[in-house]
Amino acid sequence: MAWVTGASGAIGRAVCQTFSQAGARLALTGRNADKLADVAASLPAGGCDPIIAPGDVSDAGQVTAAADSVRGQAGRIDILVNSTTCPIFGDFLDLTDADWLSVLDAKALAYVRTARAVIPGMIEAGGGVIVNVSGRGGHQPNSPSHLAGSCANGAVNTLTKGLANLYGPSGIRVNAVAPGPVASERFERIRAANQALAESGGVSERSGTPVASPLGDMAEPAQVADVILFLASKRARFMTGSVLQVDGGGTASL
Questions:
Q1: In the structure, what pLDDT confidence band is assigned to residue 122 with cuts at 50, 70 and 90?
Q2: Which Pfam families match (predicted)?
Q3: Is there a domain that residue 199 lies in?
Q4: Residue 17: closest CA among 244, 235, 224
């Protein structure tokens, strides 16, 4: 059983489709039940019907309720894929404390809540897998309108490594993928926010331009989902604490 949060987003939807094609049974969580139903309807025919467990991952009570619902119907949660986002972009000087807290609450703390909800059961079962979706900005924060999100992604990367260290002895693997720009409605909002900052003089035009990669400007959601499927599979059974850059080579590092 694979529980996918943020299941109605571009990457979350692709994860559901990719996992379903691989034969996984799925549980879908997001704030909008209608969008989750649309994702469920898009899955390949012939597989198990997914469990739809709506919930807002920024609310600890709703996370607990969603996890309990999944376990109540499936018996256990073997894989957790965290793929939530927070659509708050803007000039650093304009973002309020409330904006920053909202971003952290919907991303880094959300991943804390979901991990806390599944880890005891994974320990009891003798193991499990958690894959966190962070972002390239957690390592290379070059999007001027997305600094808050980049900081949240940095926290996700640290959480990933810390949980891997804590629960590896219990058979739980924890890894992350850090996509660069991904073709989606959300990326178009980020691009527009960066361009608006550049035009207003808030940042230089160069700073407002997405960094191209050797393989092209952006990934398709399914390309990110393929990497997540690999990390969740037994083929990655000796990988934990890793943050894989899925950005077409846009992050230059040794």
A1: very high
A2: adh_short_C2
A3: no
A4: 224
